[in-house]
Amino acid sequence: MAVQTSAIAANLERVSEKVARAAERAGRSTDQVTIVAVSKTFPAETIRAAHDAGLRHFGENRIQEFEAKQATQLGFADAVWHFIGHLQSNKAHRAVHLFDRIDSIDSIGLAHKVDAAAAQERKRQPVLIEVKLSGEETKSGVCESELRTLAETICRLPHTELHGLMTIPPYSEDPQGARAHFRKLRELRDGLRRELGLELPFLSMGMSHDFDVAIEEGATEIRIGTALFGERLGARNR
To answer: Angle at which helices 179-196 and 144-156 pack, to 10 degrees?
Structure first.
């Protein structure tokens, strides 16, 4: 465990240095950017090592996988657990029970399911809306034309709190290829602020290969997997 913690701590230091440089270029403070460690597919002992290294925000995208990890005593009182994957409506209650925030609301129907689950859990559930800014069929998210309606719906729900927006741009080897998508999400957030009078303090965008560009465009949360934990099998990390 000590060796793993040391390796993650070294990776975290490198990421933090890059965060600081990007924030400086954008005239922002590093305090305005939170690293969400994307721990999906990694075992509980890796998460414990990451916590020992100083990380406090963790992103998971599979309900059953996270339930199994929680069964191994991941009850850190100071950790914040983000659900970052596509959430099926029939798993809304399990997600609300397990996670501090759901970062991937993409439909009115799902919003209502999450609100009903939060009522049963006697909590107010913080959420982000996932916005689809590309034509990729494999990507989840609400389209731009339906964003305002979804935001208005969530704001009327008694047990759900809208905290901001999230997006996953099309993958590009050149990090600059994502800049227009990051800028667009910020502009959409700013538009909702003006039109609906919402605060929406969180913009979740940017991954291991392009988070510096996301910070320059206003990201307040960056989802980092590979740069902290190394490569994993399967799809690219958020």
So the answer is: 40
Rounded to whole angstroms, how far apart are CA atoms 104 and 166? 7
Q: For the domain covering 2-229, report its CATH number.
A: 3.20.20.10
- Cβ 60 vs Cβ 39: under 8 Å: yes
Phi and psi at residue 156, in whole multiples of 5°? -90, -10
Distance CA 72, CA 103 (A): 24
Closest to 199 in 3D by CA, of 155, 156, 158, 157: 155
Under DSSP, is residue 150 helix (H, G, I), strand (E, B) or coil?
Answer: helix
pLDDT at residue 109 above 80?
Answer: yes
Query: What stretch of H or E contains 108?
Result: helix 108-121
> pTM here?
0.94
Report the C-alpha gap between 228 and 220 in whole angstroms: 18
DSSP-based three-state secondary structure for 86: coil
Q: Which pLDDT belongs to residue 105?
A: 98
Residue pair 59/33 in contact by the 8 Å Cβ criterion: no
